[in-house]
Prior knowledge:
Elements: E1 8-13, E2 30-31, E3 34-35, H1 36-45, E4 51-56, H2 60-70, E5 75-78, H3 85-94, E6 102-107, H4 115-128, E7 132-138, E8 147-151, E9 154-159, H5 166-169, E10 173-182, H6 183-191, H7 206-213, E11 218-222, H8 235-255, E12 259-260, E13 267-268, E14 273-274, E15 279-280, E16 284-287, E17 291-292, E18 297-298, E19 302-305, E20 308-309, E21 314-315, E22 318-321, E23 324-325, E24 330-331, E25 335-337, E26 342-343, E27 348-351, E28 353-360, E29 365-368, E30 371-377, E31 382-383, E32 388-390, E33 400-402, E34 407-408, E35 413-415, E36 418-420, E37 425-426, E38 431-432, E39 441-442, H9 454-458, H10 463-483
Parallel strand pairs: 1-4, 1-6, 4-5, 7-11, 12-15, 13-16, 14-17, 15-18, 16-19, 17-20, 18-21, 19-22, 20-23, 21-24, 22-25, 23-26, 24-27, 25-28, 26-28, 27-29, 28-30, 30-33, 31-34, 32-35, 33-36, 34-37, 35-38, 37-39
Antiparallel strand pairs: 2-3, 6-10, 7-10, 8-9
Amino acid sequence: MTDANVAxxxxxxxxxxxxMKSARAKVLHEVAGRSMIAHAxxxxxxxxxxxxxxxxxxxxxxxxxxxxxxxPHALVAVQEQQLGTGDAVRSGLAALPDxxxxxxxxxxxxxxxxxxxxxxxxxDHRQAGSAVTVLTAIVPxxxxxxxxxxxxxxxxxxxxxxxxxxxxREIGEINSGIYVFDSELLRDGLAALTSVNTQGxxxxxxxxxxxxxxxxxxxxxxxxxxxQVEGVNNRIELAARNAELNRRILRGWMFEGVTVVDPxxxxxxxxxxxxxxxxxxPGTSLEGATSVAAGAVIGPDTTLIDVExxxxxxxVRTHAVLAVIGAGASVGPFSYLRPGTQVGEGAKIGAxxxxxxxxxxxxxxxxxxxxxxxxxxxxxANIGAGTIFANxxxxxxxxxxxxxxxxxxxxxxxxxxxxxxxxxxxAAGSVITRDVGAxxxxxxxxxxxxxxxxxxxxxxxxxxxxxxxxxxxTRDNTDGEDQx
Length: 484
Ligand code: UD1
Ligand code: CA
């Protein structure tokens, strides 16, 4: 148990999110590469709650499936009809019949909320000995929010924007929709709710006035960093929250010693891990569980999704998914690394190379214009420009092995399954279908024939024939001079 441990956290996530205009549940939309509900759960986990309840309603099967994956420990409570936030928490408490102690209530659509903020809220609540503490903030535009009504400085009630009179609408202190309640007060307060308001809903916020009437202490914890509690109701707000969280993530990494050349065009997901002295150039997007080690330089214009980059590697104008890039390796420009690609230490993948399920040995080079699928390439091998690893016969995919220090000439086709031994050569332009032994040169192409006089006979009157004749003339003249 940590010092901030609470009995339960209830996350409200049953609302429809009509303004998202989406077939996807609102809380499943992503911010910095994680669903909003995953952000909410991460913040809740900072309180080490004995129990975590997510209240679902609209598109509940989608949300439930996602929760099974990301938070199997969470209890899922169903709110059948979205009758308001008070009803949502009633549904949540139905999953916690015997809960006693502190219950934190938060929302599934405030992705920037930090766990540390919840810890401070709970600490403040305890220190003041309150029965309920509301997380509030003073915002530049309070339109739409519930306003905090204070009497003699104490919180007396929360009035919803739509129910507020003109004077109340002038109030800049808003309800974030995040609270810590004493469970007994919460239960009694919820039981007493009525829907006598402009929206005909059961307002959780009415529990505040209820507590006051009972003579219980109501606290407010004012959060200076109000951007943390901004929610998401439409795609514009989704983009704004995503941009803000990205700025915060970038700032965090810059404090840790990462150089970000252009923060405006650099995107880093929440699950990414970076070392000090990584450099990120403009247009870089690091996604999923990507990690980058010290001294590596990424970008410009590079997207890495679940990619591991080792020390001092360079990755330029590249799109890579589920790949591993070794120390000091060089990738790009214009490379496409697909799942299962492992670029060895000091190896090179160059321009217009696509690799899939390919192990490129230490110091090996695949510098230009190659498709490299299902390949195992040995240390120090050199794959010539335009080489194709033909891994697919239309039915099955097979592997090609290219041995250590082997040299594959340009424009070769290596037809898998194939073993090209260590220390061998493949002549340029070959179509290799049989294994090649160590020390051998494999040549598999038509013999060259040069047919004398062909242009004269078949291309008479063309510029080509004229050029050919000019060459012949010069030769004759030179021959003449020689004879003098
Ligand atoms: C609520 C607060 C308001 C506060 C604002 C902060 C009430 C009455 N008002 O207003 O004071 O300033 O949040 O954003 O509580 N939900 C359910 N079931 C429902 C209704 C809502 O699960 O029946 C969930 C929503 O999915 C959302 C959260 O509760 O996650 C808040 O609901 P929302 O409709 O956005 O509340 P507001 O009207 O914005
Ligand atoms: Ca809202």
